[in-house]
Amino acid sequence: MDLSLVIMAAGLGSRFGGTKQLVEVGPNGEAFLDFAIKDGRAAGCHQVVLIIRSDIEADVRAHLERQYGSTDGFVLVRQDDLGPRRDKPWGTAHAVLSAAPAVDGSFIVVNADDYYGPTSFQLAADAVAEGDQGVAALVAFECAKTLPREGAVSRGVCEVNDGVLGSITETHGIATGEDGVIRSEDPEGVLESTTPVSMNMFAFPQSLFPHLASQWDEFYAEFGDQPKTEYLLPDVVDRLRASGDLTVVVPSSSEEWIGVTNPNDLDPARARLAHR
Hints:
This protein is an alpha/beta fold. It has seven helices and 14 strands.
């Protein structure tokens, strides 16, 4: 089966204060995306597509040349080449749509600034190994294993029924209190440590792209004049699930997420990745 790895690397990193998708976190100068490339290839991804912004293309190419000797074997897609340009990228669903011409077959999608772990990539690859055009996968992580040591984050909280996605709710302000309880602000509530959450790690059939295109047209017609509203992948997935166009299986990863939401997350992340 032709399987591609699509890495979303066009984010602004506004909370981090810079291009965090290229910040060095590994012992040999690796960025998070390098761990994704290694683990994705080990899981059977034969092509790596990097979704970038025009203004960071030179930096991305320079990073790839340092790590791999050249940019051969990588496809770079500029998200801002698709549709009208604005200061803030249009969102994760728009990013994946921009990669459509470069992807032929099933594909795994990940963020460029998250560490997912090798078994997570294998779970994603296995979920679409049969090539069923009506089946996608969302690799879920235990909520407590995705929280930074300080500060609050947003996560897609999943309802899972017999291994199949029942709903996904974008939930903001998730943090662990001094009493050890995990709470969210919007919607307000208490989450269990094992609550399954999405970290934007999906596996999709080729059939996703026509749906992305049609929903993008609808989104842009309604929100095209708004400078910050985003066309988001979890929203598309939930609509396709609800309409019956996709069955979304939810393999559960036992891996511990590593990321940098804020600058003070950087040193702990480096320490945890020192021997990966």
